[in-house]
Amino acid sequence: MKRAALTNKLLVLGVDGMDPRISRKFLAEGKMPNLQKFIDRGSAREDLMLLGAIPTITPPCWTTLATGAYPGTHGITCYWRQSPESLDAVVYNLDSRNCTAEQIWNITSEAGMKTLVWHWPGSSWPPTSHSENLSVVDGTQPGSVNMGVAQLDWEKVIIATPEIKEVRYAPRVDKPAGVGCIITDLEDTLDAEVDDEMMELWWGDTAREGGEIRTYVMDDEDTEVVIGSKVAYDIVNSPLKDAAGWANAPEGAKEFTILTSGGVMRRPALILKNEAGEYDRVAIYKNKKAEAPIVILERDKMVTGIIDDVTKKEVTKPACRSMKILELDPAGNKVRLWISNALDISNDQLWHQKSLYKDVVGNVGEVPPVSLIGGEDAELVREIFEPSWEIYCKWQADSMNYLIKEKGYTAVFSHLHNIDCAGHQLWHLGKTLPNWDHTDEKTYQGFIEKFYTQTDDYLGEFLYLLDEGWTVLVVSDHGLIVGENVPPIIGEYGGLNTKVMEELGYTVMKKDENGNSIREVDWEKTRAVQIRSNYIYINLKGRDKYGIVDPKDKYDLEEQLISDLYNYRDERTGKRVIGICLRNKDAVLIGANGPECGDIFFSVEEGYNRLHGDSISTSEGYFETSVSPIFVAAGAGIKSGFTTERTIRQVDVAPSVSALLGLRYPAQCEGAPIYQIFSEDI
């Protein structure tokens, strides 16, 4: 289809988890002035909503945005695919080779546009076009660039006082809010090697190579509401004493010891006095003989780009860290310090072309690590979690702008994960749930606001492009609900959900000697299982390894199961918890059908949802939150100050990009251009 282009430069600013409903709340309060400028100079619906694909999960929705196809068509139906070997296991799915639909960036690059795909967690990696015009950065996980492959060491808090008598190291301490950092029992800490193995399994080479992931969600302790609240980091305790044996220790300095790399790497550190005689700085050295420190930290300032050696699995490499003083007694009797995870600065594994990594690092700076700790500890959220994302957002904006200005990219598809990452840590703490009084909801609603204003600053970094002939689309994959009730144990995306299916008699778990369920399915008695957020599989003879249900009984069993799910009531409120329930053949109505979906698709009813994933995209929650994605368009080819009444769907974004650029539509596209917002008829 030949047609004139309405623009020749286009930027998609994707923000994972950005909710139009909560955005409108902060817009009305004047807290998102840059987003307001995009709206004033562009087009959107009054409610800013984009009708999201189903399931409302990161990889399916970003793939839908990229292809214009529904998940049932493109085949990316969750973070994971069902294991071909077992109904209780899944395999890695953030892999473009599993996508059965064409991505829009292949069309732009093959049409001669210099195209950048930046950290898009939906069928972007590995690159699926050989065009020399296509550059791709990461896309193997939704966190931050390089997080999945370059981590060498975990985050840690170091505390030093004169009362501590020896240096002690505790890996991955699962610490409730309000509990101090003094180590009293090393036996209560997790095994660092085991924890590293779990990280590797979920995000590392094992997962990417197709290894099975098998987890069970059996009670509240296994759910994201609880897991996301935990604060797990390494803790180091050290004596704090007068400096001795240093080549160049300032007068009055006091020393303590930092342990990194699983406790095998030692770094001596000093607290230093200012001219008024108060301790206000921390200097960290490679050793006591070093003339200059690795870094000097000042109060209230997070420092990134700190390069130091890190050892992992007996291999030592230079890595980038961020650090910040959490507490420093002016009298010199206590210091508490945060050190970020460490990113291998030589790792260009997920950069195509490889030269792109060296170019960005050389001209913008090393990839800054983001914090993943916070949970119920409001101090860590305020002092560490949010500021680390602020640094990362600025680095990402600077990197993209450098590539646009200096390297001539004219089609850019980008993704930022700050809101979603914060949401999975914090959003459920924005309301005091039944039996959950660990945090103050106003404090956590303030954190929600902070991440939205942080995002507004990020969007503002690209406003200038509107004056340079660019078209800019602001989109998201889904919003994030602040839940109103404790969700039932069905619909959790992180594993096999057993409790409700056990209660209904479809899933049977093996029992211990006391009659308690253990984490192993009794396949001889199990007729169906629920896994991957929205999918239920019948344990079918001839198809499944341990199948017991005769294929001729499948239809009747599905009917019974659907009826039982609709009749299931929450034990706390007595209300229905299942929203919609459809056989695979009927789920074509919502684009959630096909071989990569279960025998039954279901959603959790509004009010009982998790953050996202288990619900449909129109669900709403507490504190004016929703699961809906956002859509705003501005710039060349877009009407200025225009409000459309059209229902805009995620499948409409890719064909709209094609229409704006005068290019063909993706081959499997099921959406249509949002022609109502275009400045000219096409």
TrEMBL record:
- GO MF entries: hydrolase activity
The domain of life for this entry's organism is Bacteria
The family database entries (InterPro entries) matched by this protein are listed as: Alkaline_phosphatase_core_sf, Phosphodiest/P_Trfase
Pfam families per record? Phosphodiest
Name of this chain's protein: AP superfamily protein
Q: Which organism is it from?
A: Desulfosporosinus youngiae DSM 17734
